[in-house]
Design brief:
mainly alpha, 195 residues
Length: 195
């Protein structure tokens, strides 16, 4: 039976979505093409009908999940973002969490093309955070960007460090609690909170 173009596109999107979750859970090198296709419900042989290589899928899956992170956090302000991001729930669910926290370490050892995908995702995340950052005063755009870059690096690092600890480790929770508190404290009060 011949697959329609619409069905082929839907199949491709399903493979990308499945790959995105598996890559965040296991890392880029922890998922083979055969395992990935089986998880998506397809045969291994069908992979190359959709993608030129695993590297192509890695870049597309990363771009997709980075864009999804922006969509998922679009309606919250920066302190709420920090509270959600630097949390045990996020730490314990890498497959549904942020691609940066799950795969930055892997991306550092991948192709320049994949690094470009991550750089673009970081820029988009910074732009979104900058647009939601309420300083309550006239602050230069460079300062806002620097603050959001510092905050994002701190938040991503906190999740990565916490995930490197045993699941039931007191240190894993301590990292999250201290980093979250320090990040929130470093943010100025919103204009509504100022006297």
């Amino acid at each position: 039976m011949r697959v329609t173009k619409a069905q082929a596109q839907a199949n491709r999107e399903h493979i990308v979505e499945t790959a995105s979750v598996l890559f965040r859970e296991r890392g880029f090198d922890g998922v083979g093409v055969a395992d990935l296709m089986a998880a998506a419900g397809f045969t291994h042989g069908g992979f190359y009908k959709h993608f030129g290589s695993k590297a192509d899928l890695m870049a597309e899956a990363a771009a997709s999940s980075l864009a999804q992170s922006l969509t998922d956090s679009a309606d919250i302000d920066v302190p709420a973002f920090v509270n959600l991001y630097v949390s045990r729930n996020h730490r314990d669910a890498p497959g549904g969490g942020c691609t940066l926290a799950a795969l930055c370490g892997d991306a550092a050892r991948q192709s320049p093309e994949l690094k470009v995908t991550f750089a673009s995702g970081i820029e988009n995340m910074l732009a979104a955070l900058e647009s939601r950052y309420e300083t309550g005063q006239d602050v230069a755009q460079e300062e806002v960007r620097a603050k959001m870059l510092d905050m994002l690096a701190h938040a991503v690092g906190a999740i990565m460090l916490s995930r490197a600890c045993p699941d039931d480790s007191a240190l894993a929770d301590e990292i999250l609690e201290i980093c979250r508190a320090r990040i929130i404290t470093s943010l100025p009060p919103s204009p509504a909170q100022q006297p």
